[in-house]
């Protein structure tokens, strides 16, 4: 089984559990917190990968992490299952897959909006509303300033890109002039 298939299987089960209990966002927050602990301390990955540690010792480490992050019982049990099945190495991938699947389940898209200049709140709201109308989904935008665009906006939603930047328009004009 490939890593992505494995991550998707575990994440899908957790999304289903979260959806049934109305806890998708709470699970996301708790998983993000646990992932933050693993990111902050690379020794945690090493501990769970260490064959010298017994399953019981690894369970105690995870139990301490669950208590430290104040996870719900459901997420705590899920994390303990990962320890029991020796799947903690895939935790970050499972969490990333969870985020994607939870957004799909909740009808949320998270576009990346790149602009040459800082947008004020009303501009962001206007773009968000237009995207919500076009997609029929709730939009949670992430705005990034990118001075290389010169002007305009580039909106990236998954694999789809809407590019109305001055840089792209100048490139198109250049291509037309070179072709004659």
Walk me through the structure.
- 64% of the residues lie in helices and 12% in strands.
- The protein is α/β, with parallel strands linked by helices.
- The strands form 2 sheets. The chain has a 4-stranded mixed sheet, with no helix packed on it. The chain has a two-stranded parallel ribbon with strand order 1-3.
- Strand 5 and strand 6 form a beta hairpin.
- It starts with a helix and ends with a helix.
- The mean pLDDT is 92.
Distance separating the two termini: 53 Å
Q: What's the mean pLDDT score? A: 92
Low-pLDDT segments, ≥5 res: none
| Strands, total number | 6
Total separate domains? 2
Q: What order do the helices and strands come in, and which of them pair?
A:
Blueprint (H helix, E strand, L loop, with lengths): L2 H19 L2 H17 L1 H8 L5 H15 L3 H12 L6 H16 L1 E2 L2 E4 L5 H15 L2 E2 L2 E4 L7 E5 L2 E4 L2 H14 L1
């Amino acid at each position: 089984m490939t890593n992505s298939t494995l991550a998707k299987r575990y994440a899908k089960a957790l999304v289903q559990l979260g959806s049934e209990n109305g806890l998708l966002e709470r699970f996301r927050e708790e998983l993000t917190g646990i992932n933050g602990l693993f990111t902050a301390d690379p020794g945690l990955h090493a501990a769970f990968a260490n064959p010298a540690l017994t399953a019981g010792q690894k369970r105690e480490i995870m139990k301490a992490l669950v208590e430290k992050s104040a996870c719900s019982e459901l997420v705590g049990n899920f994390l303990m299952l990962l320890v029991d099945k020796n799947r903690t190495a895939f935790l970050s991938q499972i969490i990333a897959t969870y985020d994607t699947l939870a957004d799909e389940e909740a009808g949320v898209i998270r576009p990346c909006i790149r602009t040459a200049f800082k947008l004020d709140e009303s501009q962001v709201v206007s773009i968000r509303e237009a995207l919500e109308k076009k997609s029929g989904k709730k939009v949670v935008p992430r705005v990034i300033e990118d001075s290389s665009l010169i002007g305009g906006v580039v909106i990236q939603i998954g694999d789809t890109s809407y590019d109305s930047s001055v840089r792209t328009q100048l490139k198109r004009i250049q291509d037309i002039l070179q072709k004659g």
